Amino acid sequence: MTSLFPEIELPKIDPEKGPNFVAGVSSPLWLVFGGAAVAGATWWWWSSRWREAVNVEALMSPAAAAPGAVIDPVTEAPAALKAKVPEPVEVVAEIAVEVVETAADTTQAVLDTVEASVVETVQAATPAVEAAADDLTLLVGIGPKLAASLGELGVTRFEQIAAWGPDELARFDGLLSLRGRAERDAWVAQAKRLTSGT
């Protein structure tokens, strides 16, 4: 039998080196080398293409379309800014302004209500402050204990003592065991003098 390609000689495989060749070709190290090569190529591609800085605003500006053109910042800048702001942002901005205005109105209404309430409270408290107890110890013959006893009986103002007549003097004399002290020390006259401010 003759060969179709007589000049090509097939290599002969050495039976001792054959298993080494098969083991080398099927080694898992080829996967490691291939993975390292793929990782290196990916890193190069990533660092050179995807991490490259691009100024998108400059590409979209009218100056980029017409090199050498000068933009007037007063007339064209607001229009350029408006063109860059999408419609939903404008809507959200309008809604935010309305919410802030409503909150301001509500806050003002609450402040007005609180102010009116405080004024009413102060006006209602003014007579109570004016009706506060006088210092009865300013009267000769009344000490702190006797002033406290008079306070327990509802006598806290000079005007009350100045309005006493003989019946009240006798009643308080008996209640407080004064033995005529109020009449001797002229509490009524002293209270009238302190009430009139002279």
Ordered list of secondary-structure elements with their pairings:
Layout: H1 18-25, H2 29-50, H3 56-60, H4 62-65, H5 76-84, H6 87-130, H7 144-152, H8 158-162, H9 166-176, H10 181-184, H11 187-196
Describe this structure in words.
By secondary structure, this protein is mostly helical. Among the domains are: 85-132; 136-196, DNA polymerase, domain 1, CATH 1.10.150. The chain is 66% helix and 0% strand. The chain contains eleven helices and no strands. It has helices at 18-25, 29-50, 56-60, 62-65, 76-84, 87-130, 144-152, 158-162, 166-176, 181-184, 187-196. The chain is rod-shaped and about 160 Å long.
* Mass-distribution shape: rod-shaped
CATH topology of the domain at 136-196: DNA polymerase, domain 1
What value does the average pLDDT take? 74
User: What are the segments in which pLDDT stays under 50 over at least 5 consecutive residues?
Assistant: none
Counted beta strands: 0
Features:
single chain; mainly alpha; DNA polymerase, domain 1; 11 helices
A few lines on this structure:
The chain is mainly alpha-helical and about 200 residues long. It is built from 11 helices and no strands.
